[in-house]
Amino acid sequence: LMVRARALEERTLKMSKSGEGIFWVGGPGEEAFNVCLGLQVKKGRGPAFDYLHLHYRNLGVMLAMGMSMADHVRQMAMTATDRHSRGRNFVCHYAAPEWNVIPVTSVIEVQYVMAPGTALVQKRHGGNGVSVVIGGDAGSSEGDFSSCMVWATRPGNELPVLMIVTNNGYGISTPAKTQHSERNISDRGEAFGIPGEVVDGNDPVATWFALERAFEHCRSTRRPYLLEATVSRLHGHSSSSGAARVNNETDCMRDFERQLIQEGVIHRELAELIWHDAREETDAAVEQVMTEPMPTPDDVDRFTYAPSPVDAVYPEDYTGLPR
Q1: DSSP 8-state symbol, 234
Q2: How is 23-92 classified by DSSP, letter by letter?
Q3: Residue 204 and residue 99: Cα distance in Å, rounded?
């Protein structure tokens, strides 16, 4: 899953440079953390299951939950068959109601102030569903981040919100060390009585168990938890900055692959085969998607208003979604 996520990130980056796509943003370097999170989510629809308030660096989460490569490529290519936004949004801006994936927005960190809303429904409903909200280190400076901590810790109304910060050390182009005076972002939860920890998000084993602890706390106590994961940013923030490769960052993929080979879990030939198969799968997805239809001016209002114009028709064989 980590290799598939990396291969897809690399291919969609090429799409932005070749003209097959317009704009790229993503999270190369965060595959270890994202895949572990996606595999531990209680997947389903409604308050009995986990809600996901993601941001635009969570490709690995969606792949681990079962999203196809083609569905990611469709949003990158902005085709009418894009099941997340019908070609009307940037890549990585997912929306999957059947998995409780709340629509991702480009507005930084608004997801933190939305998460207590779904968590309140979950607490009233009963069960052990958790509202997971994830963002970056820079966004934790937004008021929405503090509002999430306030609303999740009101006496007698504590909420099962798993707050996650993936700290890659940069807010677009601003170094985190020039903005944050606290030792760790997770320390900010102490004033609100929110427990938490910092985990090496480049280590999938450490990440797996840190997420287990975090989910267990939220599910059993019905209270919030703040998990900070230190991760790498292997490319520039987005294609608007050129997205050039950064060479001095830890690569979770290479480190974990080396560890697996050294410990005899896999052999090098199998590792190479996994990479080969992932890249072939990615190329096939792009080849398929580039033959699919694009949105037209006639359907621009569809899904903007309810009810949507009835004369906007999509081919069922491409979308599989109701008209």
Answers
A1: -
A2: --B--TT-HHHHHHHHHHS--SSSTTS-EEE--TT-HHHHHHHT--HHHHHHHHHT-TT-TTTTT-S-TT
A3: 23
The answer for 5, left when phi > 0, alpha when psi is -120 to 50, beta otherwise, is alpha
Mean pLDDT of 279-292: 97
Task: Please determine, for residue 299, whether its predicted confidence score (pLDDT) is greater than 90.
Answer: no
Long-range contacts of 39-46 (CB under 8 A, 24+ apart): 39/1, 39/64, 40/208, 40/211, 40/212, 40/215, 41/65, 41/99, 41/132, 42/128, 42/129, 42/130, 43/99, 43/100, 44/98, 44/99, 44/100, 45/97, 45/98, 45/99, 45/100, 46/100
Identify any residues that bridge with 101 across adjacent strands, giving them in sequence order: 52, 96
The structure tokens 């994830």 sit at: 134
Question: Rounded to an integer, what distance in angstroms lies between the CA atom of residue 196 and that of residue 227?
Answer: 5
Condensed to tens digits (0 to 9), the pLDDT of residues 196-242 reads: 999 999 999 999 999 999 999 999 999 999 999 999 999 988 888 77
* Alpha carbon distance 208, 113 (integer Å): 26
